[in-house]
Amino acid sequence: MAHSPRPLSLGTEQARTRLHELTVIDVRTPAEYASGHLPGALNIPLDRIRRALPEIRHAAGRGTLLVVCASGARSANACGLLAEQGVPAATLTGGTGAWAAAGHDLHRPAACGTRAGWSMERQVRFTAGAMVLLALLLGLLVHPAFSFLAAAVAGGLVLSALTDTCAMAVVLGKLPHNRPGAADLESALAALRGR
Predict the structure, then answer these.
(1) Catalytic residue of the set 69, 79, 112, 166
(2) What predicted TM-score, i.e. pTM, was given to this entire model?
(3) pLDDT confidence of 112, banded at 50, 70, 90?
(4) Is residue 69 among the annotated active site residues?
């Protein structure tokens, strides 16, 4: 099995100066995208990249793709998926967090089909914390075996950190508030076809 080369990374200043020539794909959930994204970015969540591959390949044939997420981890994964399919793409170092920290504006559409919500990282922290608290409470009040659920969540968090993946984020990403509407995804794909 051939290994994919490490994706090209652009810093915030490099991306800002080239923004007019880049096709920017934001792979966060629709709720995260609605909370603020790079100007001109199209929202194609990470789990929809394969579905959008023909349109992404078309856009890559016309210019450089910049894949963006909150911190750079999901965009690096997306670049890896694209590289496996022979589609070159760059990732934004530090993601939208670094973009905003550098003082660059994030576009927050006034009328967006998805209301702004919590970032995926925040959703994972909340869910893991709630599960641990519930397991400990049930362990005290119902049966001590419930404490093993807290240990399982802790183990999952450690595994997540070691592998730089997150099964809980994958599951949370499938919830309705984190899913793009069919019209939203089709609009993004149509925009890619037009580039």
Answers:
(1) 69
(2) 0.69
(3) very low
(4) yes
